[in-house]
Batch of 4 targets.
Target 1
Amino acid sequence: MVSPRPSPPPGKLRIIGGSLRGSRIAVPDKPGLRPTPDRVRETLFNWLAPVMAGARCLDLFAGTGALGIEALSRGAGRVDFVEADAWLAGELRANLSRLKRDARVHVGDGVDFLARETARYDVVFLDPPFAAGLWTAAARALEAYGRLHESAWIYVESPAASAPELPPNWRPHREGRAGGVRYALYRRAEPSAKL
């Protein structure tokens, strides 16, 4: 029998797969900061394994950057991180530098970023601060500004009690629950496609 992996000490999380497996990331004690737990990240990246190699990814409300760093570890071609808190963005840059990973970290509002950015993404991690209620605005902006590839994958993390309103062309692929959190992966279809 294999013994379970020890939990990281408080204030740390670990990358669970890929080239950075076992690496630790500091988790600052900031109100509203809620990194995706190890078990949920493991499930999500098992779902995404067939499409991760070379994917262009967006970690839209990055926080610690755990989702985007996990994507880099598992072979993503490029990850853009967007974080409104300048101090957290600085910590994320420091972690990326320590891990010897090159990625763009943008400081500012996630929805504003979508309005001015020109890139299109294969995978988007949409996990805003729960109190901010930005799921619908960010989802609409991703569609309105053309930031998603035709068959993009979108990961959405939200409170289990209320599912956010998302575009009708985002087809549910898989979902789960962990405590009071619902996590779900969607596959984008062209808006004109028959659903």
Target 2
Amino acid sequence: MGAELASYALALGATWSLAYVVFERGHVRVDVVVMRLSPLWRSILDIVALASLAGVGFALSYGGLGVFETSLRLDAHSNTTLGMPLVLPQGAWLFGLCWFTLVAFVRTLQAATFLVRGDHSHIARIAGTPSADDEIEDVIHDTQGRMIGQE
């Protein structure tokens, strides 16, 4: 029973964290070439990266919907002593995939809007790879928050 719950928790944690990674600009990229490009080309590649994430999210969500619908139609339950209806963990898993897809799609639209306006710095703030200064600022902000919490 513990392994079953742990596997559900792993699936939920993985899918629900995907949207957070988009917000935090934590998706993996190779920046060796990108950093040498003009702001326009960097912005375009950042938008392509976000659109790619949204596309992958759509494909995963579509497949996950098929799995969820099949379990719902068959009234499938886990083959363990827990006997959990599979639509419960699969529904939460599917929600995480759909949320990730929505977040990536909205971020893509936001970045495209900034591209039309010519605002490359805003695109970098929502879609680009965090700079060392961004990471330092985050650490300072987190440290200040902890210090205030200790008082």
Target 3
Amino acid sequence: MRIFLGVTGASGALYGARSLTALTAGGHHVGLCISDAGARVISHEILGEGPRPASYADVRERFVHRFAEGPGAVDLLDHDDIACSFASGSSGARAALIAPCSTSTLGRIAHGTGDNLIHRVAEVMLKERGDLVLIPRETPLSLIQLRNMVAVTEAGGVILPASPGLYAGPETIDDLVDFVVGKALDVLRIDHVLFTRWGEPRIATGEDAP
């Protein structure tokens, strides 16, 4: 499956990282686009090097190297490359995930005023009736942000807040992140084993695994 993954400048870069790992491990072809603000968050939250990286390109390359797994493939796309295949409704790509989705990106999508590839792909998914999932990570929410979420939902997108469930007994931050990413993949109808579903035995991981 070809799927677009956008990573924007909201806190929660791990949602994008885990999404990339799950998709590539599942054998999917991922078109990955990281905004400059997204690269800043990755540099700060994941690489531990602060929010002002010397090279955005280096951050993007290191992100792919660290989190992409076989047998899937990754095309690292420039956020200004609106001529790439994912920017066209004829590309055949039917799914896009923006994880995390900043509220400014949300507003651009809601009002059709995009100016980069991430915005354009979201617009394509909505007009082509493809699958679009946005994972916002913001709290509390203003009335403007709530109205933008309604607008995207009315247009056919899915707003999936970064709100992990606790019923499976999460023990680590990774467990919390996996729950949210797994819910996004559920919406996109992509198989995964990221979390324990209600009523199922707990998935053994780490020291619990046989």
Target 4
Amino acid sequence: MTLRTSEPLRPGVRKPGSVTSGPERGDRGFTLIELLVVLSIQGILLAAVVTSFTGQLTAHSLQEQLGAMQQNARAAMTLVIRDARTAGYDPAGMGVTGLVYDPDRLTIAADHNGDGDLSDSNERVVYFHDPDRLILRRSTGGGGQPLAEDVQGFTVEFLDAAGKATTTTTDIRQLRISVTARTGKRDPHYPRNGGYRTHTLRSVVTPANLGL
């Protein structure tokens, strides 16, 4: 019996019984549908990141504005109170009228250096509000210089010894002061006050030199 020796296959000749298959998945890449799905997922993730980042920037900007607004109100109120407490200081006995009733402004007089007149710096101070420019102004005789910006309201109520409102200068013993500051930019998501957030400080001042 003669044994048949298998011969090597020639190029282009298939081995008997073998099956030709198509290219492997790694060779053929991704289909168009798969690419569209991947791009859609990436778009959703990118939109989420951008939305989150934008929200953080908006919140940070709002916090900065709120901080500036509150600081603005505190700084203005602090200076008004400091001046108001000295009203009527009169060591020379010249008869200083410490506070004068005026519904539109606050006038404070004090003889700080005791020389018998009110001609020196900061011895006659006037506070008044500029509603058109939203500025609280302070005048010491040379015009009203800006004290605080973005001030929406500044009110002063004059009180007598019983704590009741009075319009008589000689009866004034106390002051009820209110300062309302607002943010420098409007918030489109804030429905009130035209989109501007506000912060109000109130204080009652009893000058020691008015005899209460």
